[in-house]
Design a protein that fits this description.
6 helices, 4 strands, alpha/beta, globular, Rossmann fold, 137 residues, four-stranded parallel β-sheet
């Protein structure tokens, strides 16, 4: 049995966010913080990660997310799923957040829910749920 932890991050597409919420948020700054956090995760031994950038008004969005959840990582369920702040922290995204939580619960019931803060994906988000994972010194 592999000890690899697999994390799927589901966040809002940056271009969609710029077009629909660019007047409210510094999207280039958010993009840089999120991408840095995702890169940091790639440096952690025993951790594999992937990301799905959601476009809320895209036709067949939930079919794509369902396929990604069912595919898992290497054919195994995701160990954890991060739902990004852009989905959770903005009132206009509440229907999307609710739909995602219910979809994940139904499609990948063994996956842990992980929640990052408003400053991008941070390793501590993963460490809280998988404390044996550490950034190399």
């Amino acid at each position: 049995m592999s000890d690899t932890i697999s994390i799927l991050t589901i966040g809002l597409d940056f271009d969609w966010t710029q077009a629909h919420r660019g007047d409210k948020f510094d999207v280039p700054k958010i993009r840089a913080e999120v991408l840095k956090g995702l890169d940091d995760l790639k440096a952690v031994p025993g951790l594999e990660s992937d990301v799905y950038y959601a476009v809320p008004d895209k036709e067949h969005l939930f079919d794509e997310i369902t396929a990604k959840l069912r595919e898992g990582h290497g054919g195994k369920p995701w160990s954890g799923i991060i739902i990004g702040w852009g989905v959770r922290g903005v009132p206009e995204s509440t229907p999307l957040f609710e739909a995602l939580v219910n979809l994940i619960k139904e499609t990948s019931p063994t996956s842990k829910f992980l929640f990052s803060g408003d400053r991008g994906i941070k390793l501590d988000t993963v460490e809280r749920n998988f404390p044996h994972l550490k950034m190399p010194a």
